[in-house]
Specification:
Layout (H helix, E strand, L loop, with lengths): L1 H18 L8 E5 L4 H12 L6 E6 L10 H6 L4 E4 L6 H10 L3 E5 L7 H9 L3 E5 L4 H10 L6 E6 L4 H13 L3 E4 L6 H9 L5 E5 L7 H5 L4 E4 L4 H11 L8 E6 L4 H12 L3 E5 L5 H8 L5 E5 L7 H9 L4 E3 L3 E6 L9 E6 L4 E5 L1 E2 L10 E8 L7 E8 L2 E3 L3 E5 L10 E6 L4 E5 L1 E3 L9 E8 L7 E7 L14 E6 L9 E4 L4 E7 L10 E9 L5 E9 L2 E3 L3 E6 L9 E6 L4 E5 L1 E3 L9 E8 L7 E8 L2
Helix pairs in contact: 1-13, 2-11, 7-10, 7-11
């Protein structure tokens, strides 16, 4: 008793040292157990199969060799794994079969493992029985494999140990992958024939180092890949890490590394939840400690009672994993009518400062992007108490682009414009990039040349008409800057009195086709100017953008010790009642996120004559 107490204290001392000062937000924990392994298997079945099930898989509860390969078969038929005694149907199993209304049972193992008396008892209950078994454990694994059909992948484990088989069980179940048993130095001939008949499988996984399955055996297996090394706990971790991309890594099922029954019964439940089996022991092996302290575990299912998984081991599994400390908001930009699905996972910060990938449950599944604008949604992350924001900007698309007309004395001296002016779906105008189809328009003789252009998200072709006036003059018509100027609504603007002659590099007097410009209205003004002593015209485009009418006070709350970065943009309302994002410069003092207090931070936005106020409240965790 004294020795067990020391183990208990050692594990908890380790757990709390590794936790440091983090808030204890242990995973959601569920213990599934009964008075013995038979009742535990029944409780697992009740957890995963709350309604009826036409099928069940029954294996020996007294010895592991035939039992440990049953998980993929159970998953194929959406069936629980139940345990029985050799000579009589266990009472917990019998009650569970009746609750489920089972019509078909697969008995795994020959009569020396599960007797004829058990089979007869099942038939008396009106259940059809299919017995799957061979003369030994190796042949039984082969017969189970045949029931799964043509495999894409195969797992091979040493049949003298149960640990590798139960570590692989939920993964094999998820992937529909048979688990074959072999010896360390020998592979039974009929098992080898099956392997060779499936040599074109995507991959054949050999579990364990050369001390588990020898080099000779490994070399005889086609397309083989070895996974796992070291002791059974290190191999368990290696298996989890290798297949982690196919698992919900925050969904852990903890089972004893000293007995097979609870791990095997729980493997099908783990597969239903894309979880994994972690083999535990006290004291915790270093490989298991390293794994737990490097992961975020939000859901912990303990398989077995206190006599199997003690509360010392449960405590270590709860409090060693790191936690999510901060999840940043998501900012995405798309175009109107584009398909958009919120990301299933995002990168978050953990309590140890590392980055982790976490799943997000959003308050929507799909976004209607038929209208431009800013859309805000939220999501939840398991184990994180804040909400994650999703800020989606849907850009307007071009709906009208007028034809473009240009003149030039020479085709060789004319450069097609990189952008064209477009009317967007939200009523604004903007210059958008255009890609021209040059075609055969490479001649230089005077005349009319037509070009088609393509603008992204615009369903028509852009037309440009180019008139070549005098190819031999050698003097270009675009001798003056064709200037585009953008100002804010209401901002005074004086027309330039001169334009620069790019040939002589002199400023020339210009008279525009208007005396003044009304900047109180938004829009685009195109001006043509007559240049003194020049036969060529000057052109000016003035874009009047709406002014900012209002920027509301921003209030944010962050937990003490979390990361915070001041926003680079704020949402503003314009004079035409649209909402746009604008850049902001903050007059920010030092922000101490380690001390609960409230900051009042002023910011400046160009063309907005009022200060922007951000109220940041740092609260204790």
């Amino acid at each position: 008793m004294k020795r067990n107490k020391c183990k208990f204290l050692a594990v908890f001392t380790l757990a709390f040292c590794l936790m440091g000062s983090k808030t204890l937000a242990a995973p959601k924990t569920n213990r599934i157990y009964g008075q013995d392994r038979y009742e535990t298997a029944s409780k697992v079945s009740q957890e995963g199969w709350k309604e009826k099930s036409n099928y069940a898989v029954i294996v020996s509860g007294e010895n592991f060799p035939d039992a440990i390969v049953a998980a993929p078969l159970a998953k194929k038929y959406n069936a629980p794994i139940l345990l029985t005694n050799k000579n009589v149907i266990n009472m917990y199993t019998s009650v569970e079969l009746k609750r489920l209304g089972v019509k078909n049972v697969f008995l795994v193992g020959q009569k020396g493992v599960i007797s004829q008396n058990v089979e007869d008892g099942l038939k008396v209950m009106g259940i059809k029985v299919t017995r799957i078994g061979g003369k030994d454990r190796y042949e039984t694994s082969l017969e189970v494999a045949k029931k799964l059909g043509k495999p894409k992948q195969i797992a091979i484990v040493n049949g003298s140990y149960f640990e590798d088989a139960v570590s692989m069980a939920p993964i094999a179940a998820i992937k529909g992958m048979p688990v074959l048993l072999v010896g360390k130095d020998t592979i039974q001939s009929d098992v080898m024939n099956y392997i060779n008949s499936n040599k074109n499988a995507e991959q054949i996984y050999v579990i364990g180092g050369e001390d588990i399955i020898s080099r000779k055996s490994f070399n005889s297996i086609p397309n083989a890949k070895r996974i796992g090394k070291g002791d059974k706990y290190q191999r368990n971790i290696d298996i989890i890490n290798y297949f982690r991309n196919e698992l919900e890594i925050d969904n852990m099922f903890l089972a004893s590394g000293r007995a097979y029954a609870d791990a095997l019964s729980g493997s099908t439940l783990a597969a239903l939840n894309r979880g994994f089996i972690l083999l535990g022991d006290i004291p915790l092996p270093n490989s298991t400690i390293n794994f737990l302290t490097s992961e975020v575990i939000n859901n912990l299912t303990i398989l077995g009672g206190e006599s199997v998984i003690g509360y010392d081991l449960e405590g270590a599994a709860k409090y060693l994993p790191k936690e999510v400390s901060y999840v940043p908001d998501v900012y995405d930009v798309i175009y109107q009518n584009d398909d958009y699905t919120p990301p299933k996972s995002i990168i978050a910060s953990a309590t140890d400062g590392s980055k982790v990938e976490v799943d997000v449950n959003w308050n929507l599944k799909k976004v209607n992007t038929s209208k431009p604008g800013l859309f805000n949604f939220y999501g939840d992350v398991n184990g994180y108490y804040g909400r994650v924001g999703l800020n989606l900007v849907v850009h307007p698309i071009p709906i009208k682009i007028p034809d473009v007309y240009k003149t030039s004395p020479s085709r060789y001296e004319f450069i097609l414009p990189e952008k064209v002016l477009a009317t967007l779906s939200d009523g604004t105008s903007a210059e958008v990039p255009v890609v021209w189809d040059y075609g055969t328009q490479s001649k230089n003789s005077p005349g009319i040349y037509l070009f088609d252009g393509t603008v992204d998200k615009y369903n028509k072709k852009v037309k440009l008409t180019l008139q070549i006036t005098d190819s031999g003059s050698g003097y270009p018509s675009n001798v003056f800057d064709n200037t585009t100027i953008e100002i804010v609504q209401g901002e005074p603007y004086k027309l330039p009195k001169t334009v620069l002659d790019k040939i002589t590099n002199k400023n020339m007097s210009v008279t525009w086709n208007t005396q003044s410009i009304d900047t109180s209205k938004t829009g685009i003004v195109r001006l043509e100017g007559t240049v003194k002593d020049s036969p060529y015209k000057a052109y000016l485009t003035l874009i009047v953008t709406p002014k900012i009418k209002e920027i509301k006070e921003i209030r944010e709350t962050r937990v003490q010790g979390s990361y915070y970065s001041l926003p680079r943009q704020v949402l503003a309302t314009t004079s035409d009642d649209r909402e746009i994002w604008v850049d902001v410069t903050w007059d920010a003092p030092f922000i101490d996120m380690g001390t609960p207090q409230t900051y009042y931070i002023k910011g400046t936005v160009k063309h907005y004559d009022k200060p922007v106020l951000l109220v940041l409240k740092v609260v204790s965790n």
